[in-house]
Amino acid sequence: MSRKPVLEIRGLNVDYGLGDQAVHAIRDVTLTLHRGEVLGLAGESGSGKSTLAYGTTRLLPPPGVITGGEVIYHPSAGEPYDVLGLTDRQLRAFRWAETAIVFQGAMNSLNPVHKISTQLTDVLRAHDPRMGEKQRTERAREMLTLVGIAPDRMDAYPHQLSGGMRQRVMIGMALILQPQVVIMDEPTTALDVVMQRQILGQLIELRERLGFSVVFITHDLSLLVEFSDRIAIMYGGRIVEEAPAAAIYRDALHPYSRGLLGSFPALRGPRRELTGIPGSPPDLKGMPSGCSFHPRCPKAFDPCAGRIPVLAPGGDGRTVACWLHEEAR
Amino acid sequence: MKYFLQRLAFYAFTAWAAITLNFLIPRMVPGDPVQSLITKYQGQLSSQAIDSLYVLFGLDRDMSVGEEYVKYWQQLFRGDLGLSFTFFPTPVSEIISDSLPWTLWLVGITTVISFAIGTGLGVLAGWRRGSWTDGLLPVTTFLSSVPYFWLGIIAIYLFTGPDSFLPSSGGADIGLEPAWDQWFVPSAIQHGLLPALTILVSSVSGWILSMRNMMVTVSSEDYITVAHAKGLSDRRVALGYAARNALLPNVSGFALSLGFIVGGTLLVEIVFSYPGVGFQLFQALGAQDYPLMQGVFLVITISVLIANLLADVAYLLLDPRTRKEG
User: Fold this and answer.
1) I need a labelling partner for B264 at 20 to 30 A (CA). Which of A26, A214, B55, B136 fits?
2) For helices A133-146 and A163-175, what crossing angle results, to 10°?
């Protein structure tokens, strides 16, 4: 696989609110998405996964504010640029054409009063005003076919489609401008397991055909292990571990990653006890000192409560932020 | 279409019920119209006159309620609503058809303008919340709590007088016949201006508030975020996605307020002595003019029903989710 980066997040900080009241939802996150890869982003609710996705595309709902960092995008041709520095007009052109998003609430992602066709073609109209009406319709039909929906559903309204179909329409819509990056924010949470698999399988197949990169956000680590190339684990607004999917599955370095892996049954292999993680996710308003995971960590020791561990290489192209491994180095 | 027919049948039934009640209630009221007229003329009627009045009102023959009911419907279809006491012997239908256009023009135009301005400002205030437009809100809350008639009295006190351009009462200059000519129309506009502004000022804020609140609610929907993420222009997201969905509840409110055009601004018409339906109803109440009241109530009922039907149709057009197949 080529290791050329397509999206680099550097030292990103996102707050909700201003001043002393601000809640730091994303702290100093650095993450690189390479061309053509599927990067999984996992963590409990409130760990900042979605905020990270919204932050990089500047879609944060108020009172979310980006307080620092940069998001470098490498277009397929031309110089890399910082997404956070784009003007409104440039940002509109950037959105969807370069990075498309499939959202968490797939069921509500379509405007209930417009036909599917209208919602597919208005993207084209906004990004390429010179395209003719006929070409736009043609392209929209093509996308529906691509995601396995009969093109005669073009004139359907969202409420006439099932949840799975709506999510397929969203995926088709995300790919309509052939973006380089597709961010999937828990795209299958609202669907049943069979539909989840079908849609993900289709997505992976499309990715191989069209060659876009995927940021896949979910709390379902088992899904990530299966579908992604690399996995980043988030906790309390920070990335605590990042490694190839297989490496995480075989040998997670961070106790939190291990906890996550221990909380669901493996599809294959011997039976084992499900352990889970004691306690509950941290309150972002009053983060524990030092490593924010230490109150729940079974392996916490002296330095954990005092100092924040930094994300450092842990061998084999993986990084981890944990004092256990700091000492080992 | 089936849904539409169902609604239509429902409204036909409601109209029937309303008309039947309208028929029954006066018959449960003690006394009869001739007695009221006798009282009105204070014994100046000869016994012959009284007899002919009984014939005129159809009270000389002993009809069963059933027969009367059938006759009532027959009269209704001929547009015959009986004779007014106050303006005896003018038929009620004539009085209503004289006063209805005044009300329809004044309140109708004002309601449409008020809805258009209010909704427009509401969209703006909801979309740009947090900006200067939020300063509008306390003002609108205050204005929407002010009753029409009170504002009307204040307006008359402040803006009318012997040498003011704005007249304090009437629908047009005395002596002008309603017609589409260069004398009547400007005069009618001049007279309508103050009542119209009164209604506008106190009703527009309701539209602003409800539209703004809906815009704020809709703005947090997922499809709005998607629309932003799609890189659509701010205008397209605001109008095509947010306002288009936020409009739905306001449209039904609008259709309902159309129904109240006929009877809803009674007090404004009284304050400005405006020759509309509300003013006639006021006079009818004062004179115990039951036929006229009945006629006015009938017109109000039917207009509310028609407005409801319009609301249903508008909803069918605007919200695809209400369209049932088959």
Assistant:
1) B136
2) 120
